[in-house]
Amino acid sequence: MKKWLLLFCLSLLLVLPLAACNQNQPEKIKVTEVTHSIFYAPFYVALEEGFFEDEGLTVELTTAWGGDKAMTTLLSDGADIALVGSETSIYVQSQGSRDPVINFAQLTQTDGTFLVSREKIDNFTWDQLKGSTFLGQRVGGMPQMVGEFVLKQHDIDPHADLKLLQNIDFANIPSAFASGTGDFVQLFEPTASIFEQEGTGHIVASFGSESGKVPYTTFMSKESFFNENESTARKFTAAIYKAQQWVDEKSAREIAESIAPQFNDTDLKLIETVVERYKEQGSFATDPILDVEEWENLQNIMDEAGELPQRIDHETLVNTTFAEDVAGK
Questions:
Q1: Distance between CA 62 and CA 36 in Å, rounded?
Q2: CA 195 to CA 201: how far, in whole Å?
Q3: What SS3 state is found at 203?
Q4: How confident is the model at residue 25 (pLDDT cuts 50, 70, 90)?
Q5: Are residues 135 and 173 in contact, defined by beta-carbon separation less than 8 angstroms?
Q6: Hey, is 90 helix, strand or coil?
Q7: pLDDT score of 94 more than 50
Q8: Rg of the chain over CA atoms, in angstroms?
Q9: Cα atoms in the Cβ-side hemisphere of radius 13 Å centred on 99
Q10: Which domains does the chain carry?
Q11: SS3 state of residue 5
């Protein structure tokens, strides 16, 4: 009996440290992003500044290179969380999904594209686009929908008042413009700033400033994920909120230095220029709450573009519980 008790005590001495060690291991979260962009700076700050580790999480990040691909990865359980445009959750819901995709933490709150002209224009007005050749984004994507929404706000019919080109692949739009196609082009950063530095084009307006607040990129997951991982979702949202506050308080230079490891092939000064431009126009959300007004603006833009399959209530596809908890609202 004493021998058995001794063996039992020895086994506890071996097992308990291992159990304690396992409890201290960070929880792995698989995240897929629609693309890898300086536009998502607060997310990369959370990665680089250790905010996820502070919450006991480790992030395994993959880039899907497309909204449809990011959503497919999420729906097929290739990722726990997707960073993608909120419109994709509406598309999924309209197809009758049994496991709705829920938006829970907003990252960016404006469009991220800029209007670039081939010629330098000192006093740009939107009516100068009339009669021009405009190289736009792919049909059905948020950049295209926002682009058309803004043009209509300035009394420009994108299908009648100018020659709208939308038959060029997303990845090939910059090279098409650089080779001589179009008088104007809608571009993301840092390409817009690179073109300006090279003299290939000139930034004359911001679609983000013109279109108002919209949940352009949001962290989302399937409803079943929240049912099983409520604590994890809250921790993830807390890390994002810390990063959003950090970005709001820091200079463009400090942010650029933080996220530089994410963009090894991009000059630090260029990263700073892009971050400054996005900060100035309020593209980075300062908290992860996706409110009703932003949700309705998104659907108005989709509806105006003829891409809204059905109008869906905010509470159906948006869960602000975690965002409001961590932000103290």
A1: 9
A2: 5
A3: strand
A4: confident
A5: yes
A6: helix
A7: yes
A8: 23
A9: 13
A10: 27-110+214-327 (3.40.190.10), 113-211 (3.40.190.10)
A11: helix
Contact (Cβ atoms closer than 8 angstroms) between residue 120 and residue 184:
no
CA gap 218, 314 in Å, rounded? 14
DSSP letter for 183, please.
S
Looking at residue 208, its amino acid is G
Q: What is the pLDDT of residue 23?
A: 55
Q: Which residues of 256-278 are buried (b: 16+ CB within 10 A; e: fewer)?
A: bebbbebbeebeeebbbbbbebb
Q: Which of 258, 240, 250 has its CA nearest to residue 276?
A: 250
pLDDT tens profile 218-267: 999 999 999 999 999 999 999 999 999 999 999 999 999 999 999 999 99
How far is C-alpha 14 from the geometric centre of its chain's CA atoms? 46
Residue 69 has pLDDT above 70, yes or no: yes
| Residue 10 in this model has a pLDDT that exceeds 50 | no
CA–CA distance, 290 with 39 (Å, rounded to integer) = 17
User: Token digits for 61?
Assistant: 């990040």
